[in-house]
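Trying the structure run again after the queue cleared.
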Amino acid sequence: MNNSESTRKLIDDLGSANPLARYRAVDALTMRRNTTFAAINALLTQGTPLQRVGAAEILGRWRDPKTLPTLSAGMKDSDASVRARCVEALGLMNDTRALDALLAATRDTHPEVRAWAVDVLGRWKQKVARDILRDALQDRDPNVRWHAVEGLARGGGKRALAQLIPLLADRDAGVRALVAELLGHARIAAAQEPLVELLNDDDYAVRWRAADALVALGNARVIPVISARLKNVDAGVRWRAAYILGGLQAKRAVPALIATLDDSDAHVRGRVAEALGAIGEPRALDALRAHANDEASAGHLGSVGEVAQAAITLIEKRAPRTRRKKA
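Done. Tokens:
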């Protein structure tokens, strides 16, 4: 089979029902840019839907400015998958001449196209792009909102991130989790109260992100609020409170944590022991020793006794240094 015949075969494979055949064809044709440039450009308007998708992907990999008009025209394709791949390709090229086409794509009827457009614009610094991202926070599709949040957070500074606080109440758990994580990393103090509320979220991942964010904020003013949760009727609330207090190294919470070492739930006891070890307060040693033989499972932490023994070791290692500093 000569080169021309193999190229025609690869172009046919772009329309194959076999995903692996399409993937291999895209890879092979990407490497034949010098001999297939015109054919791939034409394919974006003349091929089957699957061929047009493959052509858009190849053009994006080439990153050739001469393909801008073809890709921009492809964003008006009747097939949403083709339009989405054209947006993705323009994003790879990172050419501001595509800005108008990308802005138009944020108003596309299909959420996949809007999501790709928002994702691409999130890497650009133009003011108009940032304005579009803010508008996209209200999009009806959660994936679009997720990409808008990520884009605004990228290089937006603390002021931009603080504007995301209302999204902690977004109706989509993925958006809430992402916003909680970003606010924690950026240490946005104004997010503290809504993050505490998120500890009651229905979604497990959101509750964890909120807990980690509160630890990252490192604000001691939250300690009384979190300590009170050690008495909650829900064991999950109690052990997550212990996790946060340990992360905050909250010495003020040591008495409450010691009292919670007798909790009826083994996972709570394990998290409390872990927290006391992280805090490193010697006055917790007697209580921890009393639980050193507790064989109940604390999940992936091991047995309660194992966690208690590890906490004892941590505290005893720190105690000599503490005495030397006081001396």
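Confidence is low (pLDDT under 50) at residues 322-327. Worth checking whether this holds up in the mutant runs.
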